[in-house]
Amino acid sequence: MVPVLAPPATIGMLGGGQLGRYALMAAASMGYRTVVLDPDPSAPAGVISGEHLVAAYDDESALRRLQLDADVVTTEFENPPATSLDLLAGVVPVFPRPSAVAIAQDRIAEKSFLVENGFPVGPHLAIRADSSGAAVDDAAIASLLTDGAIVKTARLGYDGKGQAPVEAGGGVAGVLAGIAELGGVDVVVEARLRLRTEVSVLVARTADGAEATWPVSENAHAGGILDVSVVPATVGPELTDRATGLAMAIADALDYVGVLAVEMFVVDDDLGEHTLLINELAPRPHNSGHWTLDAAATNQFEQQIRAVCGLPLGATDLTAPAVAMVNLLGDLWFDTDGRRRSPDWAAALESPHAWLHLYGKAEPRPGRKMGHLTVVADDAIAARARALALRAAAVR
């Protein structure tokens, strides 16, 4: 049996972004004390936390303070330094485990883990930074370039960053050019797929192996950044059941503790059948699960707190027939000439079917996630249309 960490224990958080903000809001509402470590003095989670340690993630003094103050430590992003997690774990429980975070923060390690454990992934090739052009397998690259490929940095790429496309006829030269464009770092080259859509599954798991999942989300991106998520997904019960099973099996294989997001591609195979391929893992609550704040019996952030504290997991049922979430990027704060403006949220705030969430970030920037809008409706198509219309109304 895993000990239960009950309120008013202290939960430590590495990272102060919006994911940490909502998790610590959930923790505070449950009676926990909170402390966050983030170098940004205006970090959204730091503003609402009981204590904010303003320091680098590898600052030994701050990490020692976190060890003393926190009864458990979790993280809201996948890129904290491994040395920091290991240092903390030597004194205080860290969930998700550092070993799981280490896999999810490196695409090469992640692909290797998935392949070794028998999970389906698309055709890909890992290339280390010390590989010369002569050492790269021409035939292996050629096999990936039937429909083109994408070169992705092994670390630190997110929201479309750290990626370089390669056309179908690009060959080794095209791949090497992509690697050079990304700074000559370790990369994964992924074949372009016959993509039908993308889905994601959120699975919560406790240290004693209890698991809970939410209905599968179907996602659409714009410019490499998540734009819209709708629930329930429109891909049918067979695929959603399969996706949920895969996500739970991955959480088990990682011995995961906390909320894990598993992104999957729905692709057409050579016979025209739909199949699932794992895209990537996010060892934390996820943008595609923000809808749970307003349309699930237990939201992903409260569930994160429950999981890392060893509490029973909450129910994950939808509380509406369908829901859509649209991101609000910093672009909305600028007109077509690049001048600052203030979006008008009156329509969203007046709607009885919508919830507006702004993250309290000081400065809007194009591509920066400033908030999101959740909308419920009788079906997924109507929810998506209503959410997009309310977002558009803010800048008319």
3D architecture notes:
By secondary structure, the chain is an alpha+beta fold. The protein is built from 13 helices and 17 strands. It has helices at 18-29, 44-48, 60-69, 82-89, 98-104, 107-116, 138-144, 171-181, 237-254, 292-295, 300-308, 346-350, 380-393; strands at 10-14, 33-37, 51-53, 72-75, 124-127, 149-153, 163-166, 187-191, 195-205, 211-213, 217-222, 225-231, 258-268, 274-282, 322-329, 354-358, 369-377. Strands 9, 10, 11, 12, 13, 14, 15, 16 and 17 form a nine-stranded antiparallel β-sheet that branches. Strands 3-2-1-4 form a four-stranded parallel β-sheet, with helices on both faces. α1 links the parallel β1 and β2. α1 (18-29) crosses α11 (300-308).
Question: If you compute it from the alpha carbons, what radius of gyration comes out, rounded to the nearest whole angstrom?
Answer: 21 Å
The mean pLDDT is 93
User: Which residues sit in consecutive blocks of at least 5 with pLDDT less than 50?
Assistant: none
Distance between the termini: 56 Å
- Apparent shape: globular
Largest sheet: 9 strands, antiparallel
- Count the strands? 17
Structural class estimated from helices and strands: alpha+beta
Helix content: 25-40%
Please work out how many helical segments DSSP would assign. Answer: 13
Q: What order do the helices and strands follow?
A: EHEHEHEHHHEHEEHEEEEEHEEHHEHEEH
Oligomeric state of shown chains: single chain
